[in-house]
Write a structure and sequence with these properties.
Length: about 140
Amino acid sequence: MDPQITKHLKMVSTNSIPIIDFANWSSSESTPEQRLSIAQDLVQACQKVGFVYIINHGVPPSLLSEAFSISKELYDLPLEKKMLAPHPDGPTVHRGYSYPGLEKVSQVISSDEKVGEELRQVKDCKVIITLSAKPQKFNEG
């Protein structure tokens, strides 16, 4: 296994982010039950933890690096430039720039649009923990 991946897996396992192995997802020998189990593990991890680390997904490292590089280019732009490609209205469209606070999992707990709008008013609060400092809270809004 790639040493970079091994390093990340050690970090992931110590931080309790679930690791989902997709090796059997597209294997010609995998059964529908195996694929269902992987899907259920993924859903459970997203619902309970909010993050997952997926291994053996088959996406080449070069493509992942390119995607992260393009994302970094977007997020490094000034806000007014990012807002030239805004996230379209509605919870079912997934493209464009989403400013902090636009998308929240909590706003889709109900199909009632009024409930979603009320939940959108709640400020995001991110906790950043570094190894050399105490946790800091950053409010976004």
